[in-house]
Every structure is written in structure tokens, then in C-alpha cells.
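subagent[fold] <- orchestrator: predict structure for attached chain, return C-alpha cells only, no commentary.
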Amino acid sequence: MLLEMKILMQIGILFGLCLLGEVLSSVIPLPLPGSIISMVLLFLLLMSGIMKEQHIEKPADYLLSNMTFFFLPSGVQIIEYFDLLKSVWWQLFVVALASLVVCFAVSSWTVVLVVHVQGYWRNRTHA
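subagent[fold] -> orchestrator:
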């Protein structure tokens, strides 16, 4: 019984953050979705130590393990617009290929930059 109440409290925390993000999205004059604001709030709460990982561990693990379920509506929408997509498939392919190359390059350069910065700081602290 106590475990179920703990999980319900954790789900309540996540839903409360989602609700707060939606409210802030409607109040703030910036065009940010409530889900993004909620993730930023969760990140800030976790980084500041106000919220611990244990406060949302069970529902977060469940949601992450079932993440593919949340892509079903998008897949259905793609099938509904298949005729439209069929006429521009090559453009979508080019955009997907270009974004793959750019993402790979930026990720690689980021890793190289981080390794250089870590080496710089390591040499600076040992000198």
C-alpha cells in the first residue's frame, strides 16, 4: 500500500510539473511549448537539489521503458498523409540525410572540443 502511494505521489509530481509548464506557457509571452518549460523546470529542480532523483524514479523509468508507445500517434498521422508525403519523398530524404550529416559533424566536433577542454583543465590543475 505504501509503495503504491509513493508511486502515485511521484506521478503527481510529474503531472504537476507538466501543468505548471502549461500554465507558464500560456502566461509567458514567448512561444515556448509547455512541455519544454516543464522539462526545463524539472532540470532546474534536479540540478538545484530541491528535487532528488528518487522523487520521480519509478514513473520516469516506466515512461522511458515504454517510450515507443508515445510515437504511435505520429506514425498514424504519417500514414494518413501518405499521398502528400509520396509526392515529396525525395525532398524529405535529402533533408533527413543532410540533418544526419550535420548532427554527426556537430556531435563529433563537440566531443573533440570537450576532450580538449578537459585536457586543458587537467594540465592546468596538475601544473
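orchestrator: received. Logging for downstream: The helical segments are 2-27, 34-48, 57-65, 72-80, 82-87, 89-126. The mean pLDDT is 90.
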